[in-house]
Design goal:
There is one protein chain. The chain is 39% helix and 22% strand. The protein has 16 helices and 13 strands. Strand 12 and strand 13 form a beta hairpin. Helix 7 packs across helix 8.
Length: 345
């Protein structure tokens, strides 16, 4: 029996313009984004989006500027209303919620981490982190206790009485994450949350998010335009182009089997040795003698270093204490060569 998704998007369309519903049929009949703009002066934001987001997983939505990824995430809490389609959270139709129900959804089920931090400059770090609880009407002692706990967890113990302007960009974003965690919602929406940060700080924030997720198992929807970041964070990856889903699935599978020339070009320059894992290239366990045991989560870069580049070696692949397959170094080498896009054939 398949488990019910935490969030489901069904047949979701968004057209920006005064007559969006009247011209929807043109898009449904196949009119392109460019033709819609030229002929009807409307902008296509999303086109027939069908995505399931599972509880406890990180769903990453990525694409280039204008692909519709930020439009998509703003539909989940109805900061934007769709032209057509369904938005289901825990099986409940978000479009059918009353004003009170929608307010409750935003306060109790979803929290959001923004690209530009969105901290209140006149409030302290502690007050910013506890803001969601304060809005719900919790007393100051409860707000401060919860905010202090999560500020400690994100590495900001001792900064409670500082103001945002006194913090670096990376520290301000840690406050934003602490604020979302203090809200204690099942779902966290993160819209380009790390893209304003310097590369080293960005890596630290990615590692922090994965560390927290290992313990908390939140349902996270993460928006990014960076493929390396998407491949690092995603349990489920959704790639958009011109408002439509080009491919979605497990990131390793997309990297190994791109379904479209656009995706092939997208992944062609990625450092495959650093991103691909042993689990993506292993075979069923048939042998009895191996050069050693490796984890199915090891990346291929580490395997190249371990083998010394010897393509005749093969290893037993372990999931914890259980053997689950075997890795032949010759298969690893083949996996490092990306498929040529149709334009290169």
């Amino acid at each position: 029996m398949t488990k019910e998704p935490k969030v489901s998007l069904r047949g979701l369309y968004k057209i920006f313009g005064a007559k969006d519903e009247a011209i929807l049929h043109h898009v449904q009949a196949g009119m392109s984004k460019e033709d819609l703009l030229v002929q009807h002066h409307h902008v296509l934001g999303l086109q027939d989006i069908n995505v399931d987001m599972q509880a406890g997983e990180i769903t990453v939505v990525m694409g280039l500027s204008g692909s519709g990824k930020s439009t998509l995430i703003r539909h989940l809490n109805r900061l934007i209303d769709p032209t057509a389609g369904e938005i289901l959270v825990d099986g409940e139709d978000v479009m059918a919620l009353s004003e009170t129900g929608l307010r409750s959804l935003r306060q109790n089920k979803m929290s959001m981490v923004f690209q530009k931090f969105a901290l209140l400059p006149h409030r302290t770090v502690l007050q910013n982190a506890g803001l969601a609880l304060a809005v719900r009407g919790e007393d100051a002692a409860t707000c401060n206790a919860e905010a202090s706990k999560w500020l400690d967890r994100v590495g900001l113990k001792g900064y409670e009485n500082h103001y945002p302007a006194q913090l670096s960009g990376g520290m301000q974003q840690r406050v934003g994450i602490a604020r979302a965690l203090t809200a204690n919602t099942d779902i966290m929406l993160m819209d380009e949350a790390f893209s304003a940060l310097d590369p080293l700080i960005r890596t630290d924030m990615q590692n922090l998010l994965l560390e927290l997720q290992e313990e908390l198992h939140k349902t996270i929807v993460f928006i990014t335009h960076d493929l390396d970041e998407a491949l690092k964070l995603a349990d489920h990856l959704v790639i958009l182009k011109d408002g439509a889903v080009v491919q979605q699935g497990e990131p390793q599978g997309i990297l190994m089997n791109p379904s479209d020339p656009y995706i092939e070009d997208f992944v062609s320059d990625i450092n495959r040795a650093r991103v691909l894992r042993v689990k993506s290239v292993m075979e069923p366990l048939t042998g009895t003698e191996f050069a050693g045991d490796v984890s199915l989560h090891d990346n291929l870069e580490s395997m190249i270093a371990r083998s010394g580049g010897d393509t005749t070696l093969h290893y037993r692949v372990m999931d914890g204490d259980a053997p689950v397959g075997e890795l032949h170094m010759r298969d690893l080498v083949k996996a490092l060569v990306p498929r040529l896009s149709s334009g290169d054939a």
